[in-house]
Every structure is written in structure tokens, then in C-alpha cells.
User: Which sequence fits this backbone?
């Protein structure tokens, strides 16, 4: 099956290799966005250069491909380490990388189309076809990766090209190794499987760095994956070549007339389990686990646990049943604006005109632990997994604090967001600490009052409470004094449950309660 249109064009002019070298030689240094942009423009020019022969076209494309790899890796590293709030730069990085991989995939697909339309006339290209197919599949997989780290839905064209490229490959050669880049061998089957397994992985609950690491894990274990025309052991998903779209779990059967490929992690599940056992025992990464760069073992472990649960079909179920509703909630983003909003509540103000960050979200399901919401495109500038939000329903004073745990972009650039709520209510409290590390002559040093967000409902009577405080405010050596009405509660930090650059969610043990006395 090859539902492509295309054909061989007329013979060309000057050697394409020389033009590629000119482009590469002129690439700007230290500016990956500009370099990738220049190569993308060159790829677009190739697509419109009808006078090039197939071999000339391919030679120019593959040299640009090799040259752009390092620059796209630089873009990825910066993207993963750049706050999503910096929208302009985030857009430059994403558009540059995604556009390049999309154009590169299209360029290789165009070469294969031309060969398919006139295989006899392009006989000299025959030996290059396996490499072109593998590189095209690799480019599609990178395009898929950039789609998912933005929590978007892959296009139907991507699935269509993936199916067409794989089905065009002779069954006898899909597993044969090809030298895709200098020093790196792969196969058409491996690249196809990597793309399928990457797409089947539940990444919408992972932040972009976690998604990137999960992608590396997929590549590492790819030789163990299974691919079959039958629902063999180890196959957890299927992909329809005739109707290509997002892979489906085998719990749902394909239609009788489907041309289906079954796939799954297979032996990689047990191999990953052994890696986790090694990490648990030694707290170090096993030497055999090859990652692109050094990573914190605790972070790697958290991602490996997620991947293992997904591959083995043991993903954690929701703790609470969700109910379908249709309602609007008011949302404010980030610790600073939540504090400001709660200050309005304390002052008995219902005026939101002075809170430009407040947004209206549509909630479509709710449970004791959180919301599922559909948010407009304008809100997507800052939303990502891990974002802290303040949420209120129809009663403005009924504020709660939540954390975005899941993000998925859907049609129209809207996003479906899952929010975990922290505690049953949020209230602004005053706190100060007594730093015992700087205690001269037995007299403790008092630190001025600050505001914090109390997440617990009955702080007076509970043995432990949760409070959101400014980042880096306390240590385990500090006594903490909190004012609740006319009561002063003496606290001792017990554990930091979660933190980001702005704040920390801290569990405090209640040490003593007394009347508030200003020092």
C-alpha cells in the first residue's frame, strides 16, 4: 500500500552537494534558532527545485540533515530548561525545531515518492532507499516528540506518513541494519517501533524534561520491543496501516477489515524491572542504561516507574470517582497571584478588575481530589504540568489551591487540564520564624512577619498541617509561629512535600498553641 502522489522530475543543473555545503558553511555560530531556520529554508527550496534529479535532491537533503542534528539538540536542551511563561522564546524554539523536523520528514518522503513513481528510472537510488526510509521515520519520530512535549495531538498526516513509509518497506529488509548517521546504525523496523511506542506512552502527566527522558528510555529498550501481525504475547497496542491514527490498546479490538500491526514492550518490561531493582538497591544508574546526558538517579527512577507502570498495564487508577458537570471556575496562576487574591478575600473585596491574571475556565468533571477543565487558547501561555493555581467556584471567597497534573491539547488549540486540589480550602495566614542557627548569647533571632497560605481546615486542633510558604523560607531548625485569629500556633517543619521556584508545600507539626503576642 502506497497512497502517495509524486514522480521523477527532469534532470537538473549544478550539483546539489555544493549548494548544501554553501548553506552549512554560512550557518551562524552560537545561534541554534537561526541555524535551524537557515537549514529549514534550504529544505523548502529543495522541495520547489523541480530541476534536481532524485540523487541530487537526496544528497543535498542528507547533508543538511546531518548538519542540523546538533542544532536541534541544542534547541531541545534550551526548551526543556526554559520556563513556559517565556512565551516568545518558547515559541521560537518550538516552531524552529518542529518546523525543521516536519520539513525534513517531508523532504525524505518526497524522495521515496519519486522513487516509487518511477523505480526503474531511478534505479541508481535503490540502494539509498532503506536509509531514506529510516531517516524519514526518525524525522517523523522527532516531530512526534516535539508535538507531545507541547501536549498537542499529532496530526493525521504524521500517522499517514508513518504507515506509508513502513508499508513501502519490503518485509525482508525492515529488520536489516542501516547506517542512519555517522557512527549510528538502526533499522526501519526499529524506527517504526520507536515511533509507535513513543506515541503509546502516557506522557500527558509528565513535564517536558520527563517526557524527553521517557523518549530516551524508549530508544534504549527498542531492540526488545515486539511487532507482529497477530496479537502475540507482549503486544499491548495495535496500529491500523489502512486507517492510520493514534495507536489503540488491545483491550479494544480492531475492525474486521483492518490492516493491523500489533506491538508492545515485550521483554523490555522485565528488563526495565531489573533496572528499577538496581536503582532501588544502589541508588545509582546501571552502566548499561545509556542516556544522552547525566541525570539525577532519583529523577530517572521516577520516570522509569511511570514507564514501567505504563508498559506493564499497571497505571495507577484515580483515587476518587469523577462526576460530569458543566460549570465555570475562576483561576489565578502562581503563588504570588494566589496570595494577592486571598488578600482580597481577607479585605472582603469581591472586585476582580484589579486582578488581570484571573481567568475563566470551563470545568467538565469534578471529584473530591480535583477538577478536569477545558481552557481557552489564551490561557495556554503559562499552563504546564506542575503549575500552581488558585481556584474558586461560584462563591468567590471559597478559594482552594491546586496543582496542574495533566495537560492535553485538543482541536482548536484548547487544552484539557487535570487539577489536583490541595486541601479543602485556602486561607491567608501570618507567620514568622525563629532562626535558632543565629542565636547569640541564648537569645533567638526573630524574623519579621510574612504571609503564607494555610491548606488545612482545622489548624487549631490538628497535630499536623500543610502550609504553602515562600521558597527557601524555612529549615528544619526553625521554630515557626503562625497567627490564626487570636491564637498563636508554634510549628516545627517536618517535610517539604513539593516545591518550585516560588514556593514550598511544607508539612508542619503543631508544637504548642497560645494567645498571640507580638514581639
Assistant:
Amino acid at each position: 500500500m502506497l497512497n502517495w502522489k509524486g514522480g521523477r522530475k527532469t534532470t537538473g543543473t549544478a550539483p546539489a552537494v555544493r549548494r548544501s555545503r554553501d548553506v552549512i558553511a554560512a550557518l551562524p555560530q552560537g545561534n541554534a534558532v537561526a541555524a535551524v531556520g537557515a537549514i529549514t529554508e534550504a529544505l523548502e527550496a529543495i522541495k520547489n527545485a523541480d530541476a534536481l534529479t532524485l540523487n541530487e535532491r537526496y544528497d543535498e537533503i542528507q547533508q543538511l540533515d546531518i548538519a542540523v542534528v546538533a542544532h536541534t539538540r541544542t534547541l531541545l536542551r534550551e526548551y526543556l530548561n526554559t520556563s513556559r511563561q517565556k512565551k516568545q522564546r518558547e515559541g521560537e524554539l518550538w516552531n524552529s525545531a518542529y518546523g525543521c523536523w516536519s520539513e525534513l520528514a517531508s523532504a525524505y518522503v518526497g524522495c521515496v515518492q519519486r522513487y516509487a513513481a518511477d523505480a526503474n528510472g531511478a534505479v541508481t537510488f535503490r540502494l539509498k532507499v532503506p536509509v531514506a526510509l529510516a531517516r524519514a521515520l526518525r524525522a517523523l519520530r522527532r516531530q512526534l516528540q516535539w508535538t507531545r512535549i507541547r501536549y498537542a495531538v499529532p496530526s493525521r498526516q504524521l500517522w499517514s506518513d508513518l504507515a506509508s513509509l513502513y508499508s513501502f518497506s519490503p518485509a525482508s529488509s525492515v529488520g536489516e541494519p542501516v547506517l542512519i548517521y555517522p557512527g549510528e546504525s538502526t533499522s526501519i523496523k526499529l524506527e517504526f517501533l520507536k515511533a509507535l511506542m513513543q506515541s503509546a506512552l502516557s506522557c500527558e502527566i509528565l513535564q517536558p524534561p520527563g517526557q524527553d527522558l521517557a523518549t530516551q528510555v524508549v530508544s534504549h529498550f527498542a531492540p526488545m520491543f515486539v511487532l507482529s501481525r497477530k496479537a502475540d504475547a507482549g503486544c499491548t497496542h495495535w496500529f491500523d496501516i489502512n486507517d492510520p491514527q493514534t495507536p489503540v490498546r488491545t483491550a479494544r479490538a480492531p475492525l474486521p477489515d483492518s490492516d493491523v500491526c500489533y506491538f508492545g514492550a515485550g521483554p523490555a518490561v522485565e528488563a526495565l524491572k531489573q533496572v528499577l531493582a538496581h536503582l532501588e538497591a544502589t541508588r545509582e544508574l546501571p552502566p548499561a542504561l545509556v542516556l544522552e546526558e547525566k541525570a539525577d538517579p532519583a529523577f530517572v527512577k521516577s520516570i522509569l516507574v511511570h514507564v514501567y507502570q505504563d508498559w506493564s498495564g499497571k497505571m495507577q487508577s484515580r483515587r476518587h470517582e469523577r462526576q460530569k458537570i458543566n460549570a465555570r471556575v475562576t483561576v489565578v496562576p502562581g503563588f504570588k497571584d494566589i496570595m494577592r487574591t486571598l488578600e482580597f478575600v481577607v479585605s472582603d473585596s469581591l472586585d476582580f478588575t484589579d486582578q488581570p491574571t484571573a481567568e475563566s475556565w470551563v470545568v467538565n468533571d469534578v471529584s473530591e481530589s480535583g477538577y478536569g477543565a477545558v481552557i481557552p487558547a489564551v490561557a495556554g501561555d503559562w499552563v504546564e504540568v506542575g503549575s500552581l493555581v488558585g481556584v474558586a467556584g461560584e462563591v468567590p471567597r471559597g478559594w482552594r489551591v491546586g496543582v496542574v497534573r495533566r495537560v492535553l491539547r485538543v482541536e482548536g488549540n484548547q487544552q484539557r487540564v487535570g487539577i489536583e486540589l490541595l486541601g479543602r480550602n485556602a486561607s491567608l495566614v501570618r507567620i514568622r520564624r525563629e532562626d535558632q542557627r543565629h542565636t547569640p548569647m541564648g537569645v533567638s533571632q526573630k524574623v519579621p512577619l510574612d504571609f503564607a497560605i494555610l491548606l488545612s481546615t482545622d489548624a487549631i486542633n490538628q497535630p499536623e498541617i500543610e502550609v504553602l510558604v515562600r521558597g527557601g523560607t524555612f529549615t528544619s531548625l526553625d521554630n515557626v509561629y503562625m497567627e490564626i485569629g487570636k491564637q498563636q500556633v508554634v510549628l516545627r517543619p517536618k517535610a517539604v512535600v513539593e516545591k518550585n521556584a516560588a514556593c514550598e508545600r511544607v508539612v508542619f507539626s503543631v508544637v504548642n498553641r497560645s494567645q498571640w503576642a507580638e514581639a
Notes: The first strand starts at residue 178 and ends at 181. The radius of gyration is 28 Å. The chain has three domains: 1-198, 323-422, 427-515.
